[in-house]
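Reviewers of the previous submission asked for a worked example of the structure-prediction workflow described in the proposal, so we include one complete record here. The input consisted solely of the amino acid sequence. No template or homolog information was supplied to the procedure at any stage.
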Amino acid sequence: MVIYPQEWTEKPFNDFMKIKRGASPRPIERYLTKSIDGVNWIKIGDAPRFGKNITSTAEKITPHGAAQSVSVYPGDFILSNSMSFGRPYILNIDGCIHDGWLRLYDFQTEANDEFLYYLLSSSYVQKQYEAFAAGSGVQNLNKEVVKKVTVHLPSLPEQEEIARTLSQFDTYIDDLAELIEKKRGIRDGALEDLIRHRTRIDGFNDEWTTVSFNQVITPKARIGWQGLKKHEYLRSGYSYLIGGTDFSHGTVSLDNIWYVTKDRYDMDANIQVSENDVLVTKDGTIGKVALVPELGKPATLNSGVFVFRTNNRLLPTFLFRVLSSSVFREFIDTLSAGSTIKHLYQKDLKNFEFEIPVDKKEQEAIAETLTAMDEEIEALEIERDKMIQIREGAMDDLLTGRVRLSV
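From that input alone, the workflow returned the following structure tokens.
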């Protein structure tokens, strides 16, 4: 149980702020406009992935539509009440909100806006949302639920100092996120230049040659008669079962992976995968690519995934980069020809052609260069995630008064 400082004031949200649910004119399509007198129409897609301020909108609605909605103003909070349950944002713009948002306003006499942002984001408040929502029998966050939430407020000067301290964490996290995106852009540009040999690595001047898919690659996949039943998908077991949903940032994520028994694993040696195998989705979102990392235990393929195995002319690590580039995306686009294709067939792959260095050492050098760039990005992501965890700990300490700051 948290014991708050005696001088902090305990209050429900309803005692120091106003709360109003958004509203939408219907059908909304009738009120969308590109006119200069249009009013900002704030949707969840306008909220930043990282950061706390909404600064612009993709769409506007007519003044007549705005009259049937709920107006919001700079300095207001809006709280998502469905998809990103309870996530707060501070408005830097005016506009209108639909019924997927709650407006929180007129709190300034009791709460600093930056402090309130961290309070609304805290696990303590989020748990109250969940408890009150569960008790009310609704699955989303409504005005009555938010009104019941109780918090402890220090003096305004202490709120400001807490907010200033936590904002320093956020500034660093935002800077890291910006740097990560910049590094990804540099990596993606280098990938295109190296794979199309617009840029050559020092020391390599030998020729490149065009190869077709069947000349250098043999695809394998789970065949129909091996179709797995629902009860065979296990939460632990002898072998990983890799599906397309396990692909993440060019590798295989083990966070929510399924398992199968040894009997299922032994059924087909062709789809037993190991480190540096190249995997490609052939169903659903086709053409997603992953390079198998060191897994530490056996692994096999679920339906919907190819493993591409190369001959001695082509390194799998270089193939992975080719398939991650626009060279392969453009090939997929030619197959679809304006329509959405739902399956990548082996017969289509025979038409895929691409260039490779004749010297496999150049293939290796290209792959290693791009891997080094990936590792730099991964290190920054680890640093960002670590700092997010530290900030969460600091929030718990500062928002409960376990740690006090000099004012």
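The chain has a mean pLDDT of 92. We consider this example representative of the routine output the project will generate in years two and three.
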